Amino acid sequence: MNNSSGENAAFSYTDALSKVAWGGTFLLIGMALSKLFGFIKQLIIIRGLSPEEYGLITLGLSILIVSANIGNLGLFQSAQRYIAYYSSQNDRAKVKGSIYSSLRIATISVIAIMGGVLLCSQPLSSLFSKPELENILWLFAPIIPIYLLSILF
């Protein structure tokens, strides 16, 4: 009887290992395709814009990414930790509570960061001596919630 349970354990270990290997391969292919499409996107942007316009877009994206990373407040890492912890204890109420509270806090944070970027767009454009940057920041500010959601999921 011990032999058959040992064989089942070995089979499930092998099965789990093949699933992990398949998942890793899938992830590697996805990351490679993402990098390739990102490179193609950059080539299209570089070819279509003048160096000054490209610099403004890059500056706007940099401000967007820095402000969004400040806005996430480490919330997503802590939410992952608590959701995993409560899931392991089969406490569905606390899992739901963790999800809802993190989404509420994230919503408030996104609104505050987006408002901060919009309010600071004119001073930032003056700081960098680029008046066109104000329009770019107004254009990119609505992207902050989408960017933060992409980090979350």
Would you report the number of β strands? 0
Q: Per the principal axes of the C-alpha atoms, what is the gross shape? A: flat
Derived from helix and strand composition plus strand pairing, the structural class reads mainly alpha
| Whole-number mean pLDDT | 85
N-to-C terminal Cα separation, in Å? Answer: 45 Å
- Spans with pLDDT under 50 lasting ≥5 residues? none
Strand content: under 5%
Radius of gyration (Å): 23 Å
Order of helices and strands: HHHHHHH
Helix content: over 70%
* Count of runs of 4 or more consecutive helical residues: 7
- Largest sheet, strands/sense/barrel: none
Descriptive notes:
- The chain has 153 residues and is mainly α.
- It has helices spanning 2-48, 51-71, 75-88, 92-119, 121-127, 132-140, 143-152.
Summarize this structure as a short list of keywords or feature phrases.
153 residues; mainly alpha; 7 helices; flat
Question: What's a concise summary of this model?
Answer:
With 153 residues, the protein is mainly alpha-helical. The chain has helices at 2-48, 51-71, 75-88, 92-119, 121-127, 132-140, 143-152.
